Amino acid sequence: MTHALTETGPRGSRREPSNRRARPPRRRRVWRWVALSLVLLVLAAGGVGYWLYNDLNGNIKGVDLERAIGDDRPRKLPTSGQNLLVLGSDSRSGANAALGTGDVSGARSDTALVIHVPEGRSKAVAVSIPRDTLVTRPECMAKDGSRLPSKKRVMFNSVYALAGPACVVKTVEQMSGVRMDHFVEIDFAGFKGLVDAIGGVTVTVDQDIHDKSSGLDLTAGTHKLDGTQSLQFVRTRHGIGDGSDLGRIGLQQQFLIALLSEIKQQDLLGSPTKAYKIADRLTQSLTTDSGLASLTKLAEFGRSMNGVDPATMETLMLPVRYDTQDPNRVVAAQPQAGRLWQALRNDTAIPESAKKSPATGGRTP
User: Fold this and answer.
1) Which residues touch 222 (CB under 8 Å, ≥6 apart)?
2) C-beta of residue 101 within 8 angstroms of C-beta of residue 327
3) CA distances for 353 relative to 37, 203, 295, 350, angstroms
4) Is it true that the peptide bond before 335 is cis, omega within 30 degrees of 0?
5) Which 8-state DSSP code applies to residue 249?
6) Under 8 Å between Cβ of 72 and 93
7) C-alpha distances in angstroms, 117 versus 5, 20, 122, 149?
8) pLDDT value at residue 265
9) DSSP letter (8 states) at residue 81
């Protein structure tokens, strides 16, 4: 915030002469010193600074959505805000195998969130898509390069397993009519590493949670979770509600807000070592669309979202009902789901009628 000059300063000091330039804001001065320090560091270290940047930049995996999906996409409206699809991959391979996540082969989109940021970027809404939702998978390219024909009534999280993130983006776009501007995917190991790098995330639960499947064991109250506990927290389903996927969505949304709030409060400028550690842990497990696949592009996108306060983010679940043929699966509930997607497409307020899900998973609606 910029303050106007006053006639006198502390202890009656005189006003600055009008022909002198005002001091630049403190934040700008800090950035100048940081930039100068980085230049000196690079000169002194013989290019080590560039190597570090290039190393982090090379960690990020990018997917060209335009090439992978083609032109079969919803039209981007001029006033539709920004839409980001966030995927949590439950791969059990590589570093993920040591995290106690089970022996299931392959990988699925364990978590899927459509984050909509309206024009002005001062608030946001996150819509969770239950992974057990039955959807129509569009025609895509399979992971082995073969053509994967369209198919009705497939589980949403199976799309990732067969065809990868681009097909998940295409599936979400076709079921919602909302064009995704970007997508970000992070796997189990990256999620755990990010939480550990920032020193943990604080959550409050109003009841004891004991889930032998995920390993989570929490009493009611406030807890600071490390990376392993955080992974258990977002994967817990048997310790809450009716034990279904719907029950844990509330925990995932609660954790998302807590995580974003913690990151926003971190003094990364005052701790270059911590900033590098976080960036290193995160980028090693990050896959994005090609529009975000560099540190520079990620930083620009992050700065554009700086005005969004995580505390004011609205979290919703896609309205669903239990499937009549298989009660262990859900389908989008109409007209609620249609109204929700329409509000996101048009960047308008979401009506209350679009927020109510007939299937709640034992949660309070």
Assistant:
1) 202, 203, 204
2) no
3) 54, 29, 40, 8
4) yes
5) H
6) no
7) 36, 42, 8, 33
8) 81
9) -
| 308 secondary structure, DSSP code | -
Q: In the beta sheet, which residues pair with residue 61?
A: 287
DSSP string computed for 203-241: EEESS-EEETTTTEEE-SEEEEE-HHHHHHHHH--TTST
SS3 327: coil
* Beta strands 286-289; 182-187: pairing state: antiparallel
The CA distance from 147 to 108, in Å, is: 19
- Tell me how crowded residue 217 is: count the other CB atoms within 10 A of its CB: 13
Q: Which two tokens stand for residue 246?
A: 């719907």
Confidence of residue 84 (pLDDT cuts 50, 70, 90): very high
> The whole model's pTM is what?
0.78
The Cα–Cα gap between 255 and 251 comes to 6
Nearest by Cα to 209 from 234, 245, 246, 227: 234
Query: Which tokens belong to 178?
Result: 């909302």
Neighbours of 149 (CB within 10 A): 9
Task: Give residue-wise pLDDT tens across range 208-247.
Answer: 998 888 889 999 999 999 999 999 999 888 767 666 778 7
Q: Is 311 within 8 Å of 126 (Cβ atoms)? A: no
194, 285, 273, 277: which is closest to 231 by C-alpha?
194
Phi and psi at 210, nearest 5°, equal -130, 105
Instruction: Classify 25 as helix, strand or coil.
Output: coil
